[in-house]
């Protein structure tokens, strides 16, 4: 899932200050699960904005509602007329949501209400960990299912580096050394010998470094007969 | 002989080699650096020039290296993979060769989080292993990382670092072997304070005959004060300092002299360990003591080869 955190309230208040009819738009998928931008958080933020604006004697209205996914046209289409009724939309979806909204309905004004941090999973209640950077050429088969691109602070492919101590990364005692984990995992699989292979430089052109990526699947494209 | 540098000649002739280390300044005035280099010119074969050590912006290691070359001295330029991608590194290496630099040491580099530009984007396009291999292929096969052919040829003596004090311990020997296979001709180790652990590591190295495939230089740092020792123990990644050593310093009346003694004793012990080919003395911010250490460790005069 995609993990996000709500922006600091002051930032959001600044961003919405010039507008009168405000909508806080939640998203029902990843950000609901990571408790950053579901219906509950949308209502909460709308209430906070309202209270602040009343105190400041700013006129206007603040409403909140949520759609299943802000990153798909079909869900946007269901509420498009309602959205057009606002001066501004504070989107609580990940960074994809606001972009999909304005690409699909250019007259909307959309502000980001969250900071999108990573792709990962909830490790325990209230703790979300990053696990994938979307490098476009997955190496998990080489590393026992532990991603060195994401979890090693230097994204190295031939680790662990000289900073690894007692299982922790040189970044600090609260960060596991990904390569120590990989080492132990391969050892438990009887594959420690794999580490002798010098992994060649990674082809980063499949990652974001190759420019923005578009994934095309001819076999599932809809043929509109144009 | 690959590049014919003095360091390579001394190591290959079987003499116990000595190298020093110079940290470039946070400014463009290199007088101090030149002064330190000049002061130990008869005591070391070559000088490591650090590459923005601990992720702090300093004068470029290649620029300082070129200044040493002008002085008739021999630099070993360090290259870390934190700040430059494969284009920049290969380009810089060509430039270094053109400027007369003959020794190159490959490292990962300390993470930028600890430096004075913690908000920067870390590069890490390649890792230190791939760096060694890339520079070996550039030299021996005449090809760039991307496969294109190099015009003419380049020669340099290629080294790497290894940290016997990092974990997992057993893997540290595998990693040394991997670096040899990648193309390292010499190895400088992290500062040795825990000599027992170093001896254990060397035992494993000898078991596999790796000391015959690569020249291993033990890293030694003289400790100037108790504070410095504690700082290194607690704050510098990759360094272990045993408690006994801290106690010894604490108990000493003259901390500086005790620090020197520890360094000298370490070098004397290193000389006795089979497979150790030399010592790399890292006296950063205490460069002036290097001649004394070398002399008192019985490594002076240096061989003329
Ligand atoms: S190797 Fe790439 S695709 Fe696979 S988990 Fe890591 S970042 Fe994601
Ligand atoms: S200590 Fe481990 S996780 Fe951290 S940079 Fe080194 S290899 Fe990567």
Describe this structure in words.
The complex is a heterodimer of chains A (226) and B (305). Chain A has 8 helices and 7 strands, in the order βαβααβααβαβββαα. Chain A has 226 residues and is an alpha/beta fold. In chain A, strand 6 and strand 7 (127-132) form a beta hairpin. The longest helix of chain A is centred in the N-terminal third of the chain and has 17 residues, at 39-55. Chain A is elongated, with a radius of gyration of 22 Å. Chain A starts with a strand and ends in a 38-residue tail after the last helix. Chain B has helices spanning 6-12, 31-39, 61-70, 86-98, 128-140, 171-182, 195-207, 226-235, 243-251, 255-272, 290-296, and strands spanning 17-22, 46-49, 75-80, 103-107, 157-162, 186-191, 215-220, 276-281. Chain B has 305 residues and is of the alpha/beta class. The relative contact order of chain B is 0.15. Chain B is globular, with a radius of gyration of 18 Å. The complex binds iron/sulfur cluster (2 copies). Residues 152-154, 156, 159-161, 163-164, 169-171, 177-179 of chain A line the site of one iron/sulfur cluster (SF4). The site of one iron/sulfur cluster has 15 residues of chain A, from helix 8.
Shape of chain B: globular
* Gap from first CA to last CA of chain B: 13 Å
Quaternary arrangement of the chains shown? heterodimer
Main sheet overview of chain A: 4 strands, parallel
Poorly predicted tracts of residues of chain B: none
- How much of the sequence lies in strands of chain A comes to 15-25%
Question: Which architecture of the largest domain in chain A per CATH?
Answer: 3-Layer(aba) Sandwich
Supply the helix-strand structural class of chain A: alpha/beta
Number of domains of chain B: 1
Number of strands of chain B: 8
Number of helices of chain B: 11
Task: Give the H and E element order of chain A.
Answer: EHEHHEHHEHEEEHH
């Amino acid at each position: 899932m995609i993990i996000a955190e709500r922006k600091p309230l002051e930032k959001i208040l600044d961003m919405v200050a010039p507008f009168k009819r405000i909508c806080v738009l939640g998203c029902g998928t990843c950000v609901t699960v990571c408790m950053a931008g579901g219906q509950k958080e949308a209502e909460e933020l709308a209430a906070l904005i309202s209270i602040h604006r009343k105190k400041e004697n700013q006129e206007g209205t603040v409403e909140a509602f949520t759609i299943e996914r802000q990153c798909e046209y079909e869900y946007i289409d269901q509420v498009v007329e309602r959205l057009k009724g606002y001066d501004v939309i504070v989107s609580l979806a990940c960074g994809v949501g606001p972009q999909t909204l304005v690409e699909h309905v250019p007259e909307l004004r959309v502000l980001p209400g969250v900071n999108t941090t990573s792709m990962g999973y909830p490790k325990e209640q209230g703790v979300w960990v990053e696990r994938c950077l979307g490098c476009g050429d997955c190496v998990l088969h080489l590393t026992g299912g532990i991603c060195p691109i994401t979890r090693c602070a230097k994204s190295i492919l031939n680790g662990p580096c000289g900073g690894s101590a007692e299982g922790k990364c040189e970044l600090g005692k609260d960060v596991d050394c990904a390569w120590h984990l990989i080492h132990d995992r391969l050892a438990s699989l009887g594959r420690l010998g794999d580490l002798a292979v010098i992994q060649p430089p990674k082809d980063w052109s499949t990652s974001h470094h190759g420019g923005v990526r578009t994934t095309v699947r001819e076999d599932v494209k809809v043929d509109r007969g144009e | 002989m690959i590049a014919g540098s003095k360091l390579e000649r001394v190591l290959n002739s079987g003499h116990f080699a000595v190298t020093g280390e110079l940290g470039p300044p946070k400014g463009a005035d290199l007088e101090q650096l030149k002064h330190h280099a000049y002061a130990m010119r008869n005591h070391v074969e070559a000088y490591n020039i650090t590459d923005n050590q601990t992720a702090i912006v300093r004068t470029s290691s290649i620029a300082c290296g070129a200044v040493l070359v002008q002085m008739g001295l021999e630099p070993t330029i360090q290259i870390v993979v934190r700040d430059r991608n494969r284009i920049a590194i290969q380009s810089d290496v060509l430039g270094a060769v053109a400027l007369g630099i003959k020794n190159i040491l490959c490292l990962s580099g300390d993470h930028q989080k600890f430096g004075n530009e913690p908000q920067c984007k870390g590069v890490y396009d390649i890792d230190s292993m791939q760096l060694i291999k890339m520079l070996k292929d550039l030299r021996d096969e005449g090809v760039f990382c991307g496969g294109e052919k190099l015009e003419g040829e380049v020669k340099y003596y290629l080294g790497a670092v290894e940290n016997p004090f990092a974990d997992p311990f057993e893997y540290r020997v595998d990693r040394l072997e991997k670096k040899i296979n990648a193309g390292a001709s010499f190895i400088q180790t992290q500062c040795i304070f825990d000599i027992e652990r170093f001896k254990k590591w060397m035992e494993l190295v000898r078991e596999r005959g790796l000391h015959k495939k690569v020249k291993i230089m033990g890293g030694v740092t003289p400790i100037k004060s108790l504070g410095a020792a504690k700082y290194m123990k607690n704050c510098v990644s990759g360094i272990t300092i045993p408690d006994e050593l801290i106690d010894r310093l604490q108990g000493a009346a003259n901390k500086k002299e005790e620090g020197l003694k520890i360094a000298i004793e370490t070098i004397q012990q290193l000389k006795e360990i089979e497979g150790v080919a030399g010592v790399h003395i890292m006296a950063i911010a205490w460069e002036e003591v290097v001649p004394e250490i070398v002399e008192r460790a019985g490594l002076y005069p240096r061989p003329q080869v």
